[in-house]
Amino acid sequence: MTRSSCAPTPCAPSAPARRGSRSRTRSLPAVRRVTLLAVAVVLAAVQTSHAGTLRTDLSKALVPLEEIVSGGPPPDGIPAIDRPSFVAPGAADAWLTPGEPVLALRIGGDARAYPLRILIWHEIVNDTVGG
């Protein structure tokens, strides 16, 4: 009988049996994590569904709910300023008071001042600054 250089026990591939037992023990924490994640998602969904319900007693309201209507402009109802015109700071003194707030912007050597009294009504100015 010739003896092989590899004895059956130490060299035999026993890894599949060990891997199987390891994967079972490793998969338990993974299953727990997935279960906890699923429970967290369900709880978050339940909390969100209750968040949209009113908790106000409307029977005590001074104004009936059906008389409250939406106000203000419709979507896209606030016109943007597409081609703004600018004046020198001295020329703005005729209508702009010294303490009046402006949104100031300087990019490179190009400076702008947008008076808030105008931005309140338009909200958007399409302008190219510094380029």
Task: Sum up the structure in keywords.
single chain, 131 residues, mainly alpha, 4 helices, 40% helix, disordered N terminus
What does this structure look like?
The protein has helices at 8-11, 15-51, 89-92, 116-122; strands at residues 102-107, 110-115. It is mainly alpha-helical and 131 residues long. It folds into two domains: 13-69, no CATH class; 72-122, no CATH class. It has a two-stranded antiparallel sheet. The longest helix is centred in the N-terminal third of the chain and has 37 residues, at 15-51. It starts with 7 loop residues before the first helix and ends in a 9-residue tail after the last helix.
